[in-house]
Structure formats: structure tokens, C-alpha cells
Amino acid sequence: MEQPVQTETWKAQSLEELVRILHQIFAEDKVSVEEVQALMESYESNPEEWLQYAKFDQYRYTRNLVDNGNGKFNLMILCWGEGHGSSIHDHTDSHCFMKILQGNLKETLFEWPEKKGNGEMTKKSERVLRENQCAYINDSIGLHRVENISHTESAVSLHLYSPPFNTCNTFDQRTGHKHKVTMTFYSQFGERTVC
Amino acid sequence: LPAGLSQWFPALEVLDVSGTGLTEMGTELLSLPCLHTLLAKNNRLGGPGSLPKGLGQAPLARSLRVLNLSGNRFSEVPPALLQLRGLRSLSLGGNRLHGIPPDIQELQSLEFLYLGGNFITAIPPELAKLPSLRYLVLCDNKIQSIPPQLAQLHSLRSLSLHNNLLTYLPREILNLVHLDELSLRGNPLVVRFVRDLTYNPPSLQELAGRTIKTRNIPYTPSDLPESLVRYLSLASNCPNPKCGGVYFDSCVRQIKFVDFCGKYRLPLMHYLCSPECSSPFSSASQSSTSQSESDSEDEASVAAHRMQKVLLG
């Protein structure tokens, strides 16, 4: 993605409109990170519009595909029960946007481990993202762990990945060792995926 | 709770009074025969009278399946709660609990137990007497060790232990064959080979007990004082396959590392009856001093492969 001469200021009035505008943006050759982030943040979360995608699992967070962006991006909704969290992971050279639709998520940023590293990974920063906020990350920024630290509330987030990817690396915080994993969808377009 | 609740809504099945500032839930609950789900999170419950007296005799004791009391002020699990014999799902996350009562085993139907975000320091072995428990959350507490008896939770699918004070796990954790998820991050797990060198030699009583057990010397309750009969029943088997011995109080604690599918190395604690015993994890070596960090861990690796998602990192 590179900076175009002028960035538009979008306002998505509904989830459907958000998807429509995203298709429009990604149809171009050049897409601006700031533009996409502002668009995602402009959408005011309305549970009625996304409840059909928000399927929770008792044991861990779920990934629910909403739209596959004509191959240019994947838009999905993640559902986090109380205490659910992800491992530290990278983003396979893709751009990752994460918007909170409900509840709060804590994002902890980590430095990439040294090539020969065999020690504890270095924490860069952490923050708690509130409803409707949108965060952005890519591999050049670093790695992160995302978790719902609430013991009373569940959380729902909207993620956009471009280009789409289905494998990434997870990292052991104590040693920096990485391990490739394949990600799957708990549901697609509102239908539970049976494995 | 408003008086007359059970008169207006006798068929009530789900009641959600979360975030209402409740300080107690009274006798209105006792007359709701169909209630299966009670959500009362983010209130001010925790003092005496939070739950009504006579709960064990009410229809609720058999009908209630789901109880969510997270985000309240409980400093102990209210004894009345343990009378809810039909309970399948219990959440006391984000309270002020300092421990778990052994009588938790009364909740025999429990499948889901959420105790994250409290001040729990220890886990009673009685927690393992819950045969249907599938999901156990103990994250964000102050737990220093896991009792090996927890390996008896045969139905356990997911165990959340992140952000505690664990330095090692009991070796028996490998017996949890259905465990898909295990979260351990944020614990000060030892990363280097540790050997507990403070081995206290066994007492005469222990030596006598060991001899009786290993040589199968017959005895009946009338032969010995009751205290010794009880003592003999507490013998533990040494895991060293070449030893076949037993120990009572005197044992060597040893931490060995187990590889999980080549991904993570977990420190597991096990007990041996003497420093001369080698662990089941090591290959031929007999002498304790020649054991190295990278012992072959055949038996452990096989068990470890069953745990698909150990979320350490």
C-alpha cells in the first residue's frame, strides 16, 4: 500500500456499507492504510448488523469470516470469551486492521526475537482498545498478542487482513522460538464450518 | 429482587439481574421452579445473605444449570451455592476469592468452572472429584502449584492457568488425554534443569513401611495401631520402572523437561523414592549424577503429542 495524493474521508453508516466501501477502495491499485483505518473507525458498531457472525466457543476465541473481498482482503469477526487470548503472532507480510465492536481487548506489542535468540521476548508496549477503536499492525511494526482480559465481559472485534493469509507463526514468549500454524474459520458468512 | 417475582413469572427460566447493584438475592428465588439460568454479574453480592437460606431444599437446587456471579465481591464461595446439585456452569470470575472449598466436589454435574481473576493461592485436590468438568479456568490468580490429583479430571478439555505463580507442573498432567487447550503464559516456569538436592534420608518408620510394602508382608488391622494402618495405605509408587518401590514422606523431587511436539519444553515435577532412582523419562542411565538435560523422553513425548494446543507462548 502506498500513499495516494489525496485520502478520502469515509463514513460507513452500516456494516454493509463498510463492506461496500472496502470493495471500492481495494479495487484501486493503491490503497492507503490511513484511509482504511479511518473508514473502519468511522463505522459505529451496531450489534444487530453483526450478531449473525458472532459465534462464540466456550474454550477459545473464534474467527468468523464475513467477506472475502474478491481475493484482495479477508474481513472477519473474532469472538473472545472471558479470559480468551491469542498467542504472540506475526502477520505473514500482510496488513492487519483490528476494530473493537464490543467490549475491550488488550494488545501487547513485542519485538521480533533475535535470529539466534534464546531468551525472553521483549515487550514493546501494551494498550487496551475500547469499543469502536481501530488498531493497525504489520510485520515491520512487530508482533502482538491480543487478549480479552475481562473476567465478566466477552469481546467482539472486526479484522481486515490484506492480502488474505491462512498461515502465520506463533512465538513462545519465554524463548522466542517460532512455530508455523494454519488458521481456520469457525464460521463463514454466518454458517458454522464443520471440520 | 422484587417481591412477588415468582407470582408474576412462575414459569421463569432465565433471569438476568446483572449490573443492578444487588447486595443480596432473597427468598424470591426459592419459589421459581423452572429457573435454569441465573445471571447476576457485576453487582455488589458477597456479604452474608447474598444467597437465600434454604437453597438446598428449593426446586432451584435441582433446576439451576447456569450461575454467573462474576464481578461481585465474594471473598469465599458461599456454602449455600454448593447445594445447587444440578449446576453445570459456574462463574465466579473477578471476585475476591482466596481459596476453593473442598466441598466444591458436591457440584457433581459441573462442566464449566470459571474462577479467573481472584486471589486463589492453592487448589484443593477435591476439585479433581468432578467427573464431568470440561473447562476449568484458574487464570489471573496466585496459584503456586497444581495438585497431581487434577490429572483425574478425565473429561477436561481446556485448562487455563495463565498469569499465576507456577514454577513447574506435576508430571501427572500428561495423563489428561482429552486436554486440547492448556494456557501457561505469565508463570515463572523454571527454564533450566533443576534438581532438588535437599534429600532428607527416610525415617525408621518410613524404612519399615517401605519394607512391608515391597516385600508384601501381610498384615491385618488387628496387627497394628490404626495410625500405622492408615500410614501404610498412603504409600506412593516410585515412577522409576526399574525400581518398583514405594515411598511415604521421604522422596526426591525432580524437575524434568518434556518436549511438546518439539514446540515447547515444560518443566514437570515428579517424585522418586531415592537419589539412586532414575526417572521414567531417562533411558538406561542408573546414576543420578550422569543424567543430562536432554534425557530421552519417550514415554512423556508420546503423552505430550496428545496435547495439541499448549498455549505457552
From TrEMBL, chain A:
Alphabetical keyword list: Dioxygenase, Iron, Metal-binding, Oxidoreductase, Thioether bond
Covalent cross-link 3'-(S-cysteinyl)-tyrosine (Cys-Tyr) as placed by the record, residue numbers: 96-161
Oxidoreductase found in the keyword field: yes
Keyword Oxidoreductase in annotation: yes
InterPro entries: CDO_1, RmlC-like_jellyroll, RmlC_Cupin_sf
Sample GO molecular function, one term: cysteine dioxygenase activity
EC assignment: 1.13.11.20
Pfam families found in the cross-reference section: CDO_I (PF05995)
CDD domains: cupin_CDO
Positions bound to Fe cation: 89, 91, 144
Cofactor: Fe cation; Ni(2+)
Biological process (GO), any one: taurine biosynthetic process
Catalytic activity field: L-cysteine + O2 = 3-sulfino-L-alanine + H(+)
Highest taxon of source: Eukaryota
Entry note: cofactor: Binds 1 Fe cation per subunit.
Pathway(s) the chain acts in: Organosulfur biosynthesis; taurine biosynthesis; hypotaurine from L-cysteine: step 1/2
SUPFAM superfamilies linked to this entry: RmlC-like cupins (SSF51182)
Role: Catalyzes the oxidation of cysteine to cysteine sulfinic acid with addition of molecular dioxygen.
Family under the similarity heading: Belongs to the cysteine dioxygenase family.
Protein name: Cysteine dioxygenase
Species for this entry: Irena cyanogastra (Philippine fairy-bluebird)
From TrEMBL, chain B:
Gene Ontology cellular component terms for the protein in this record: cytoplasm
ATP-binding among keywords: no
Listed Gene3D superfamilies: Ribonuclease Inhibitor (3.80.10.10)
Start-end of Low complexity biased regions: 281-293
SUPFAM superfamilies for the chain: RNI-like (SSF52047)
Alphabetical list of Pfam families matching this protein: LRR_8 (PF13855)
Keywords of this entry: Leucine-rich repeat, Repeat
Keyword Repeat: yes
Disordered: region residues: 281-303
Name the record gives this protein: LRC58 protein
Annotated source species: Irena cyanogastra
